[in-house]
Structures are given as structure tokens and as C-alpha cells.
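User: Hey, my collaborator sent me this sequence without any context and asked if I could get a structure. I don't really work with proteins. Can you help?
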Amino acid sequence: MAATDGGLPVNDQNAFAFWIDKDVALAGKKTLTYTGSVMFNDCIIMAGGSGTRLWPASSSQLPKQFLPLRDHSFFSAAVDRALAVIDRDKKSRVIIIAGKGHVTHIVKACANYSGEDLRRLLLIPEPEAKNTAPAIACAAMYTDWMTGAERKMLVLTSDHIIEPLEKFKIDAAAAEAFAQADKLAVFGIAPRRPETGYGYIEAGTLLSAKAEQPEVYGVQSFREKPDREKAERFIEAGNFYWNSGMFAFSSKFILDEFWKNAPSVILPFKKLRAPDERSFRTERGLRILWEWLDLREAYREAEAVSFDYAIAEKCSSTIMVRAGFNWTDVGSWDEYAALAGTGEDGVSHPEETEVFQTGSKNCFVDSDMPVALVGVEDLVVAVRSGKSGRDGTVLISKKGETQKVKEIVEQIRKKGRTELL
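Assistant: No problem. I've predicted the 3D structure and written it out in C-alpha cell form, which is a compact way to encode the shape of the chain:
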């Protein structure tokens, strides 16, 4: 992909005066405003996924985002983030996109909110999983129908740890400023190691680096998950960042990008009619767009493709905000154990797991039934007894090797034992 530097006039130093508290014209288009506060009109939370990297605790019925972590779930933390960055206009929404099989988990989690916050939440259950581009197109089209106005929108993931909230809000404010000016804003994470499991963003020209404000770069290219050798070259280059999977844009801009770059995704949704009141139902206070006429057909016809591939890689007006917040994907049991475990005597575990042990060291146990360890070291033990109706499953892994769980999952698929997933 050719360098775009976000479509900004990189030689015009006055173009970056938006970092002070006033409006300035940018490239003859829209006006950028940056005050450090965030007021998105809508947030989209991507809450789908099959949940295999933390198998067997996570599964297609209970993906990672609904697993407990500390005093909440990954998903609940994402809702908290969304509520923190939308304005208080009565029409602002947090739109949750998830599979119909996950509705129960979402309703349960959202029941913890009340009053104005709960009234801002809307769940759109997907008839089938078609990757992230159709999900975002669906939410953007819904917003366009229901408001008829241009909206500033932020797309959030639901299965990552992002802390602290205040730093996230600062970075989101920078992204919002560019979304106002018809740019696609992405968030890049400074890599901590040559990771082969993440996509990368190649940063171009530095557009702003004011003190106490996030660095913003043009985007040179997007790179797919690399092999080890290429990942090491990315680290050495110094201008490659992990792709967080979060985006900011205006609704009109992104719909135009869909029509230009991914008509096979957006066209089926154009055939939908705006939902009427009969399309909705409410469960425990959560409003759900349950029966959107012809939505199933739209999903059936839409191309299954990621937003990165369909839009971000092809967009000529993309910028990257270098994240100042801490970001953790929690893509393995090793990472989850470091975050979720509490305990003494060399064995850690979530509070709800009952463990008995003697002579064991540096182990982590996550189980819905009691587990006893005798004289073992450096193990991750995950047990699901089958109480939930699934077949019982057990994972025993050496610490440091849990990334290979994906190989076990693939073996299970090849043997046709998908009921275990």
C-alpha cells in the first residue's frame, strides 16, 4: 500500500494547530477541534467471536469476552469504556454487535447498568458470523437510518484489557478530532516483543507530537500477521505498531468508504428497511433489535471479510494514534494466568476455583470443580466439568507453551469434534 500519511498536508505546519483549543481549517475540508474531551455520538462494541485461545474455559458458547476477570468481565469493561467516551445527548448510543447465541450473556452483563446508561445500550444480534466488516457496516447503516445525521463513531473491541481509562479517553479524543475531518483513525500499540499473532500498522510521517498529547502518524501500510523473522524486522525498523482493532470515523465518511472499497459488503444492507418499533424487544432493561426484517438475508449475501482488509487497507485517508494506554490481548493462558490468578503456596487460581495442593510450584488452575495438585511445577490446568451442558474437557499445559492451544483446537476440528469447542 502506498504511503498516504493520512491524506494530510504534512508540509503545512499550521495544519496541526488543532492541538490547541480552537478550530482551524484543514485541507479545505472540515474543521478539527481538539480540547482533550471526548464526545462520540455512537460507539460500536464488537462482541462476537468463537473463543478458542482460552479453550476450554472459552468456547463458541462462552467466548473470552464474557469470562470473569478481576471484578468484572472483558465485555463489561468495554461497555464502561464506551459509556465514558460518548456524549450525553439523548440520541447517543452504544451499539453492541454479537451473535444470537451470546444474547443471554450480554443481557446478564448489561443488567448491571441502570437508568440513563442502560437506556443508551442497544444490542443487534447477528444472524450469522461474517467477520467485522459486515458488522460495522450494519451498525453504521442503522445509525444513518435512525438519525439521518452525520455521527462521530468509535469501534471498540470487547476482549482486550485497556488501562487506564483516562489515558484511553485522551487518545480517543485525538481520534475523534480526525474523525471530524473525514479521516479513518486507528490505534497503534507500541510492540513489546516480535509477536506473530497480531497484525501490524506501518507508521509514516509524524503529524503531531505535542507534550502530554498522543503522537499521531500517517499510515504507510497495514501488514498481516507475520512469521517470526518478519516480526523481528518490524521491531528493528521501529515504525511498526500492533493493530489494536479499534477505529474512529464519521458515519457518512465510512459509508462512502464502503461503497467505494467494499460494495459487496454494504449493498445487501442497503436493501433493508429501517426497523419499526415491532422489530425491538426489551430484556431486563436492554433494548434488542431482535427481528429486523430481511437482516438474515442481508447477512447471507454480505461478503465475509474483516474491516481491516475491506476498508482500512484501502482507505487513502487513514491516520494512526499511538496508544498511550496499556493494551493486552490476553491471547493465551499464560497471559490470563498472570492477570486472573490469586493464591499462595505456589499455586494461583481465580477466587471461585477450589484447589488443594502439596509440593507444587508455579502453577495456575482454572476449574469449575475441585482440583488437587501433587508435586508438579510450571503447569496451567483448565477444567470444565460439563455442568453447563457441554462435554467435559481438561487442558494441561506447561507454562510458556499455552500459545499452542490453537493447535489442539485445530486437531479437535479436524476430528469433527466441534461439540467440544
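In plain terms: Residues 66 and 106 are 8 Å apart (CA to CA). You can pass these C-alpha cells on to your collaborator as they are.
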